[in-house]
């Protein structure tokens, strides 16, 4: 939802994107009466201000800056004109000039919505991290429902190596805008750093604890460093060989690197320690299916299903087991249910491929062709999403990291 700050606004997001933020603000005069007073005083200034706004919308930043500069010269008490001049300067990369304009706007109208935030962003771009944090924090105090302000407070705290403060700010932002990818990205970074710091403290307390190795393994697994995770789980098991859950987690990591025999042994060890571990039984069944033993795999999976009916990818794995056993109609039923209910895009993609093969075996040619087309479409979409995700993460990292500075911020230790 566009955030309204008044009427007659310059909107930097209309025709171009800010180089270092993703906000779409309506920037303008705060109150109808005050704006009417200003415009009534000077129609020429009103026209110049409106033309500056239009230039901003069209991405004509030099023209916008010139028009707003003329407005503030003619009416130096017009806070919103100073603000818009600051926006134009900020977009043009003239951060010192932008800072001066935002400070003037705030001196005239201390609670002008957006001014403290953009002041903080300009300070951030100059690597003045303490000043940036103070400015953005003021915005969150004045406008506590402004998700972007909380996000930028988190970004600045991350740059200051304050992950706990960043996580707190970004949690607040996520509550206000739970589906914003930029907020979620930075929130994930903050919480990852908090976790890493917590693990480091655990290591200081007792570097020989099996629990330290386990949490390090879990962190490696989350980062897809499966070989490192295996080494940490093996170290944990050496210290606590009968600890429930460790062998199951080790088996999961072996399976991730396609070491099927090792995964099978780990799951079997887990069931020796804890015969009631449903996940170990289910995962062992999936491994047996991967080995080509449909009967044993089906038996284990159905045994796990009898205790826990909502196992992840259940229909997909049962479908594969039935397919190995030659029960093509049963396998088709499981796969058809999987494409309707499974939440994993990769599993859905593979399920459509399996269905294309089954339909062909069952001489359902039209359905086989449609299933194969779905598989190819999803495969292409997955490739495009992966590329877009990589580009988006790269762009976000570039946009929210202050440039390296030869002279550190004197205020920030």
What form results from the Cα inertia axes? elongated
The helix content, as a percent range, equals: over 70%
Oligomeric organization of the protein chains: single chain
SSE order: EEEHHHHHHHHHHHHHHHHHHHH
By CATH, the topology of one domain is Serine Threonine Protein Phosphatase 5, Tetratricopeptide repeat
CATH class of one domain: Mainly Alpha
Count of individual beta strands:
3
Q: What's the story with the biggest beta sheet?
A: 3 strands, mixed
Q: Structural class from helices and strands?
A: mainly alpha
What do you see in this structure?
The chain has about 425 residues and is an all-alpha fold. Among the domains are: about 5-145, Tetratricopeptide repeat domain (Serine Threonine Protein Phosphatase 5, Tetratricopeptide repeat, Alpha Horseshoe); about 310-400, Alpha Horseshoe (Serine Threonine Protein Phosphatase 5, Tetratricopeptide repeat), CATH 1.25.40.10. About 70% of the residues lie in helices and about 5% in strands. It is built from 20 helices and three strands. It has helices at about 30-40, 45-55, 60-75, 80-90, 95-110, 115-125, 130-140, 145-160, 165-175, 180-205, 210-220, 225-240, 245-255, 260-275, 280-290, 295-305, 315-325, 330-340, 345-360, 365-400, and strands spanning about 5, 5-10, 25-30. Helix 3 packs antiparallel against helix 4 and helix 13 (about 245-255) packs antiparallel against helix 14 (about 260-275).
């Amino acid at each position: 939802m566009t955030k309204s700050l008044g009427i007659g606004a310059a909107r930097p997001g209309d025709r171009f994107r800010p180089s270092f933020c993703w906000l779409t603000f309506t920037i303008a005069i705060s109150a109808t009466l005050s704006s009417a007073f200003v415009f009534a005083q000077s129609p020429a200034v009103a026209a110049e201000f409106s033309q500056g706004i239009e230039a901003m919308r069209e991405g004509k930043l030099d023209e916008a800056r010139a028009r707003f500069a003329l407005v503030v010269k003619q009416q130096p008490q017009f806070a919103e004109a100073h603000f818009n001049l600051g926006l134009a300067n900020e977009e043009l990369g003239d951060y010192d000039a932008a800072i001066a304009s935002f400070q003037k706007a705030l001196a005239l109208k201390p609670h002008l919505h957006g001014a403290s935030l953009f002041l903080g962003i300009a300070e951030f771009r100059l690597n003045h991290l303490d000043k940036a944090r103070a400015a953005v924090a003021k915005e969150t105090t004045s406008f506590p429902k402004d998700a972007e302000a909380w996000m930028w407070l988190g970004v600045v705290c991350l740059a200051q190596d304050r992950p706990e403060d960043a996580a707190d700010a970004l949690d607040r932002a996520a509550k206000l805008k739970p589906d914003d990818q930029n907020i979620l990205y930075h929130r994930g970074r903050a919480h990852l750093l908090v976790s890493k710091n917590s693990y480091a403290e655990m290591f200081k307390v007792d570097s020989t604890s099996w629990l330290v190795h386990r949490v390090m393994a879990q962190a490696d697994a989350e980062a897809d460093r499966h070989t490192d995770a295996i080494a940490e789980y093996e170290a944990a098991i050496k210290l606590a060989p009968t600890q429930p859950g460790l062998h199951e987690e080790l088996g999961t990591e072996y399976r991730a690197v396609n070491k099927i025999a090792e995964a099978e042994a780990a799951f079997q060890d887990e069931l020796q320690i804890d015969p009631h571990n449903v996940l170990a039984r289910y995962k062992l069944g999936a491994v047996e299916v991967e080995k080509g033993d449909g009967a044993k795999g089906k038996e284990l999976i159905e045994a796990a299903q009898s205790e826990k009916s909502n196992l992840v990818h259940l229909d997909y794995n049962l479908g594969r087991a039935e397919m190995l056993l030659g029960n093509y109609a049963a396998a088709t039923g499981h796969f058809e249910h999987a494409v309707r209910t499974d939440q994993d895009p990769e599993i859905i993609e593979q399920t459509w491929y399996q269905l294309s093969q089954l339909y062909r075996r069952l001489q359902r040619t039209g359905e086989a062709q449609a299933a194969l087309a779905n598989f190819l479409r999803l495969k292409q979409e997955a490739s495009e999403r992966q590329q877009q995700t990589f580009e988006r993460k790269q762009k976000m990292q570039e946009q929210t990291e202050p440039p390296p500075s030869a002279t550190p911020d004197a205020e920030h230790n």
